[in-house]
Amino acid sequence: MHMVANSQFSGAIAANRFGLGLRGGEAPPDNPQAWLLGQFDRFDVRPESIAQAPGSAVMAAEFRAYLAEIRPFLQAGGGRRGNGVGSGVGNGAGNGGSMAGEAATPQMAEALGDVANAKDMRGDLRQRLRRQFRDGYGAQARARIVSALTTNTPFAEQLVHFWANHFAVSADKLQTIGLAGTLEFEAIRPHIAGTFGDMLLAVEQHPAMLLYLDQAQSIGPDSPLAQAALRRGGRRKFGINENLGREILELHTLGVDGGYGQGDVQELAAALSGFSVGGFVRRPVGIEAPDGSFVFQPGWHQPGVRTLLGRRYAQSGEAQPRAMLADLAVHPATARHLATKLARHFVTDVPPPALVDRLAAAHVESGGDLMALYRVLVAAPESWAVATPKFKTPWEWTISALRAVGGRTAPDLKIVGALAELGQPIWRPGSPAGWDDIAASWAAADALLRRVELAGRIAEVVGDRIDARQLAPRILPGVLSAATATAIERADRPQTGLALLLASPEFLRR
Amino acid sequence: MLDRRFFLGSAGLAAVALLDPRLALAAVAGERRFVFIILRGAMDGLQVAMPVGDPAYAALRGKFGPPDNAGAPVRLDGMFMLHPALVETAALYAKGEAAVVHAISSPYRARSHFDAQNVLETGGTAAYALRDGWLNRLLPLLPRTREPAVAISPTVPMALRGAAAATSYAPSVLPAADDDLISRAGAMYAGDAQLHALWSQAIDARTAAGADAQGRANPAALGKLAATFLAKPDGARVAVIELGGWDTHAGQAGRLNQALRGLDAVIGALHSGLGADWAKTVVVAATEFGRTAAPNGTGGTDHGTGGAAILAGGALKGGRVIADWPGLAAGQLFEGRDLRPTADLRGLFAGLAAEQFGLDPEMVARTVFARDVRPMTGLVRV
């Protein structure tokens, strides 16, 4: 371990940059490096708050019920959507002749020629599902907040947030509103201290990702299912969806400059056909599986030997995409991509090249052991050289502010809504690329004003019980500037002093 | 004491009174209202009630006073002129329903806002020495009402916090953005190149959009809301209102004018909102300390000691400035810089509350504050 960790602000760096921010009354760690690396033995994969939030199975069951109910109305209304909201994999509806006699209500509507009524019904059902998923989303988002506020392993917890953003699923599509958070809880949390390969596989097999990037309905044109349909003279065309395959290469593993081509995207996408989600597929087209759980559908898989990045994959069935993912996880381009993102998140916006090299080497040498990466990061002199090089994202700032004032639940503060106001709604980055991790994306004029206002709102609730003059040096050890201390000292009421502390330049950064 | 004895002696109430003297008092004392306005930030008493009759005043303050466009100051007596922003207050003063107590302070003698406000609100002699507020300790001495004492703020302020029931109510009209916080944040960012640039842009954009005017506090609404609570039958009889914006280190003329207009609006709204109940009401507005006798170099004043309190209410024996004036000459100033306090806010609070609720002032001073506190008397019409 390097001696640099003993500088005057090393405790602040460990707690505030690597961790989620010192809590009021909490002392900075004596041995920052040991404190950081010791957290993974204690990390709680499934804390109480998260265990109580609805998981993917619950969300998937609700979604499945919706699909079953809406199907007849899709036929009656004549307005079935091909690929949009609410379709999911249920758009095989046209093939299921047995469904026709199922619903009396749309038949009556049809008999009356009342197409508009069927449209209304469809809208109502969609609204209901949206409500259910929003409730689920809210419960999951609150669970994430409570876990971040109460955790005693804040470095590990921040890594959860980092990896969830790396594997971003945005809660914009109707299907993903209630599922985005479950990816973090079910596929990220269990794997933060394991290998990147295990995390990658868990993510790519999670229903949130499979539905978000349209993988669950990707069916090989030469698959047994497609061939059988062809023999029966069916009109439906089956095909590969490249969306997940492309994002795995571009965002999850190699990176956009990782040296792959369109051919590699197609080969990976073909190999992935058959990756699907239980509960969304009706008989007889696929294997039954529990709601929301991963299922490999052999009958959908595009058969054949594939070549990815120049390497042959002759495996049949699920073994083929698994082998590809395992190789991608430890590829040197993946190592460099992850090294760059980790260094950017924990050290500086422009990552030190030497540190990126060391992280990438550690990834390759360890076979993608994430602990090996964390050890390099924590030992790096670059990590401890500057006190607050990073401008906090709205999430980081809000969580650190609530921790500073001793928040454990913050039910009154409507934090989920506040984060949307600050520009970073939980699990809604809007794209699979996730949120940016540089100051230029967050340090903006109106955003700053909103932080000051939110600091004021937090301070109005708790500020008269907290002496910001005492709190400031405790949560910003070695970092608090004379200018901020003076501003707090001069505040004419405790609430203003606390708001200034939370809005101070050194608290806005980590 | 006279009124108390009188009521205890009334036929029909005597038997009840023997069981619980409070019940006897409740009939009339239960109609009395008490409003405490906390002026956070240290109001400059010397510019609120200007001691123009003190020869040292002109030498100290010269042209440093209310802005020219604020109107003409109102003469209170041979010594003092009232700041022109206090229009409603001046009208009440003329009717004998407002007063100023000058050269007054809490026992606190240092110059920290936080510590001084804690002393102002707890009623102790040192910061953080007491764990509850003086108004809360007063409550058990008062007739019980169905609704508890209320603070018009997001949380119950220290003055009202303690064992006795008290509540708070934050109206939706409270500003989302606190102007004072906004200006302090701007000052804090002055030395940070990145944040200073962003902040300037943000403020420019917001000013252009007119959000500043919308976001400003509406003090009249606070007063009206307090009046609503106080006017209810068996409603709250003690209310607390907080007003900020008094910490005028720079640009005092405009900022104090603005703050005083806010205070005047609160008093005016209480007056009109309470209607007939105004006759049974007293209001005391007090601040944590005064400001330096001489202006500083930035058109403002710095943290001082002695200040002024403003009283209002139909039950008040007003129309006068109550002061044992210490003088502003160099040798008369406290520590050579501040108005010397000659009265104790605790005595004012004790006397005003006791007379208002028909209690023994000595008892209230002793029970709510401390044995050595001398209650100020003759403040309330009985």
Strand segment count of chain A: 4
Low-confidence runs of chain A: 1-5, 77-112
Mean pLDDT of chain A: 87
Residue-averaged pLDDT of chain B? 87
* Global structural class of chain B: alpha/beta
- Proportion of residues in helical segments of chain A: 40-55%
Which structural category fits the helices and strands of chain A? mainly alpha
Describe it for me?
The complex is a heterodimer of chains A (about 500) and B (about 375). Chain A is mostly helical. Chain A has 27 helices and four strands. Chain A has helices at about 10-20, 30-35, 40, 50, 55-75, 105-110, 115-150, 155-165, 175, 180-190, 195-205, 205-210, 225-230, 245-250, 260-270, 320-330, 330-345, 355-365, 370-380, 395-405, 415-420, 440, 445-460, 470-475, 480-490, 495-505, 505-510; strands at about 275, 295, 305-310, 310-315. In chain A, the strands form two sheets. Chain A has a two-stranded antiparallel sheet. In chain A, strands 3-4 form a two-stranded antiparallel sheet. In chain A, strand 3 and strand 4 form a beta hairpin. In chain A, helix 5 (about 55-75) runs parallel beside helix 6 and helix 7 crosses helix 20 (about 395-405). The longest helix of chain A has about 35 residues, at about 115-150. Chain A starts with 9 loop residues before the first helix and ends with a helix. The model of chain A is unreliable at about 1-5 and about 75-110 (pLDDT under 50). With about 375 residues, chain B is an alpha/beta fold. Helices cover about 40% and strands about 15% of the residues of chain B. Chain B contains 15 helices and twelve strands. In chain B, the strands form two sheets. In chain B, strands 1, 5, 6, 7, 8, 9, 10, 11 and 12 form a nine-stranded mixed sheet that branches. In chain B, strands 2-4-3 form a three-stranded antiparallel sheet. The radius of gyration of chain B is 21 Å and the shape is globular. Mean pLDDT of chain B is about 85; it is low at about 1-25, about 170-175 and about 210-215. Chains A and B meet through helix 23, helix 25 and helix 26 of A and helix 7, helix 9 and helix 10 of B.
